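Hi R.,

Here are the chain sequences for the assembly we discussed:
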Amino acid sequence: MNWILENSGTLLDETLVHLELSIPPVILSFILSVPIGWVANRFRWSRAVLLTVAGLFYAIPSLPLLLVLPTLIGTSLASPVNLVIALTLYGMALMVRSTADALAEVDADVRQSATAVGFSAWQRFWQVEFPLAGPVLLAGLRVVVVSTVSLVTIGGVLGINGLGLAFTDGLQRSIIAEIVAGIVLVVVIALVLDGLLVLLGRALMPWQRSTREPSKRALRKVVAVS
Amino acid sequence: MNFFSQAFAFLLAPSNWASTAINPIGTRLVEHLWYTLIALVITAVIAIPIGFAIGHSGRGRGLAVALSGGARALPTLGVISLLALLIGLGLRAPIVALVILAIPSVLAGAYTGFDAVDRRTIDAARAVGMTEWQIVTQVEIPLGLPLLIGGLRAGALQIVATATLAAYVGEGGLGTFIFLGIGNNDFVTALAGSILIIVLAIVLEILFSLLQRLVVPAGVRAGRAKNDRPGATRTRAAVGSPLQEGSK
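And here is the predicted structure of the full complex:
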């Protein structure tokens, strides 16, 4: 406990850097996944191909990916950019599937009605399909946030700042308090960001409170896959 | 790209596979697979019965969901470091960490498998006089098997990835090459280790996805082929639509 009080400055600094590293991959992976997920959902063949690629990508362990990426894209090993790109790729691996599933869940009758009353394909996507896919998209994004926050710590092995340093430093110097503080802070950041997403979802999708939840089947898919 | 050719040269050099090498690749690979197998078996023995119990009784599902959500937030590196300090360096700390981290996936696979079974199927099984035990073993387990294998697949991947960190607390496995490489500023060795682990993980993923397809019960597969018709599910307007015999 004393150790934590004496080093609260370092921990606070690591926490802030951790946040800075966690948020960009989540936003980037969401933005990039929407078009890819749309393509995946659009054609039968593209669904099979894109979802298989995403699945295999998600299978790649994080530390080896962090070591292979610099050779491919020319970043330096200890660069935060390297970490952000790797985490964006992981986020996309999860989000592309969620987006495809979310769009597939939109009722075909609703889609046809929108076309019937004169929506263009573009309008129909943004005003009908995307909002209706919202709850499943949100469920996917929540998984991405939590796993990203936890994966940022792997950067510690390569000397990238963030709460991962609390683990490497704590192990080297045998300070249990430092490791425990690091774990607790990571979990707290993950839960806080997750909670913020839930609130954001309520603000953006007010109709959800009055109507039924998104189909359980779709949500279960999201949970089972991750 | 030069690094890649060097890394492949490292992987293909017979001297790096010979038992006289300091880190024979074959030995480290077998270690890695061995840790993965031990951890997966322990995880399965703990998580599957609990998952089945939750799935069958429907009790404790909220707790299981919260647990698997919370466990995803746990940083692997932190858990391994903490256990290494608490239990001491050696094989036990990484194995315990691997099991803790893989339990949620397998647990989720086990109970969502039961959850996904149509309630009417279970009611029907009860109605024809099956005992609860028969319902579990002959209806729920076979029907939930694909999702259970999915959970085991997620757990196994998690374990293979995390077993890399076993080398971080000094216990071998393929992570050895990565940590030796990082420590000695020998990027080629670290890259070679990374490539091996990535290939291993992808092979495992493919094997498990094939297995997942194989365990779908024959009855489910036959039924699905018939019912899985894309397109409108409503009955067509009567006008101009010929009466189709046998449909609906």
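Chain A has eleven helices and no strands. The mean pLDDT of chain A is 85.

Let me know if anything looks off.

Best,
T.
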